[in-house]
Amino acid sequence: MKKRNALCAAGVVLYAIAFSAMLELGWRTSYIWSFVDENASAWSALRFALSKDTGMVCIGLALGLILAGALYLLFLRVRVWWTIRLRRKTVSIGAAPLVLVLVIAVTAVVAAGAYRENSRYQAERDHTLKLRRMLASEKKIIHACGEITGPDGEVYDYTNSREALEQTLSKGAHFVEIDFAFTSDKKLVCIHNWKKDFVKADGTMVESAATWEEFTKGSILGFFSTMTLEDLVQILQDHPDVYIVMDVKAAEMLRGYRYMAKFLSGKYPDMLPRMIPQFYHASQYEYLYGCGYRTMIFSLYRSGVWEYSYSALDGIIKRKLLLGVTFRQRYLHGGREGEQVPDDLLQRVLSSRNPVYVHTIDDPDDQQEAYGMGVTAVYTNLTGGK
């Protein structure tokens, strides 16, 4: 009797441990795998969970003990039967078998969920880690397609023009940031500021967004070619190892990212993984994930002071897989007076094992200082050198 009870108790404990492990891997997939090495095993992930996510592990153990304990008590101690009449036959069903079936079903659902989540997450994670490695090697994201010299001899930035992009790609860049905005007839195009940058075909400037047709016939600053989404896709098809970091004006951001995802999903689904949206509030992550984006950058460019707290930052940088976190150059030194940027903001992000990207730095000495502080890559207008 004692031997049987001991075996049953051991079985209950083992079941609880297995149930907790499956629950942990299923519910906290991104949190765990974001912190383990690229080629780590499931055992490495569980060891991390035991040391860093003990609360969730304990919840899983408790639920597993309850399920296994209930099965043990009902199966061995309780003799309850229900009689059901099916047509001319009478069938007796015991409580213990019912509980056994229930426990097996619950376990199967949890196990299937854990397997599905980890398989899906691993595929997404592999792509993001690949881009992390590329950025760590290249150390730069070319800002607004990069600087370009105009026919007047002046150097221009923020053009988001075809010529600037082609020049940047000819120099071997793999990550290019592009600004996007809507035309007046609600089509997304590559431009930073309608009033400052766009010139109509007749040479006049505009006060607000032009139509898509006007945009295709006009120019940037009077001499650079405009880029529609079709133009951009055409260029990217000729450069399969190039990725676009997207920047859409705050008021149009979510609508712009949704438009891009819908446009690419319908015509060029292989292009969507090459688009990297930047989002500014943790709550926007789930929306973008629902649009189909899997590799994203969390930018603190427009974040509120409350979003720099440990709890707010941890909620996104430790629990979601990100390509990295971007902030201003001055944030490396605590920001301006009154900005209330934590002095240890850089270390907070680095401790989460997220890469840090800083914008916009053109001075080579400032770039080297940033790299020395642990920054992975900088946004820059300059396409040559590091």
List keywords for this structure.
single chain; 386 residues; alpha/beta; 10-stranded mixed β-sheet; 3-stranded antiparallel β-sheet; 14 helices; 17 strands
**Termini gap:** 74 Å
In one word, what is the shape? elongated
Question: If strands are numbered along the chain, what order do they take across the biggest sheet?
Answer: 3-17-16-15-14-13-12-6-7-11
Proportion of residues in helical segments:
40-55%
Secondary structure category: alpha/beta
Tell me the Rg in angstroms: 28 Å
Mean pLDDT: 84
Low-confidence stretches: none
Q: Strand tally, please?
A: 17
- The number of helices is 14
What portion of the residues fall into strands of 2 or more residues? 15-25%
Characterize the largest beta sheet: strand count, sense, and whether it forms a barrel: 10 strands, mixed
Describe, in plain words, how this protein is organized in 3D.
The longest helix is centred in the first third of the chain and has 44 residues, at 95-138. Strands 3-17-16-15-14-13-12-6-7-11 form a ten-stranded mixed β-sheet. A three-stranded antiparallel β-sheet has the order 8-9-10. The chain has helices at 2-27, 29-33, 42-52, 54-76, 95-138, 162-170, 194-197, 212-217, 229-237, 253-267, 284-291, 310-317, 345-351, 364-372, and strands spanning 81-86, 89-94, 140-142, 148-149, 155-156, 175-182, 188-190, 198-199, 219-220, 224-225, 227-228, 243-248, 275-279, 297-299, 324-328, 356-359, 377-380. The protein contains 14 helices and 17 strands. Strand 16, helix 14 and strand 17 form a beta-alpha-beta unit. The model has no long low-confidence stretch (mean pLDDT 84). The protein starts with a helix and ends in a 6-residue tail after the last strand. Helix 4 packs antiparallel against helix 5 (95-138) and helix 10 packs parallel to helix 11. It is an alpha/beta fold and 386 residues long. It is elongated, with a radius of gyration of 28 Å.
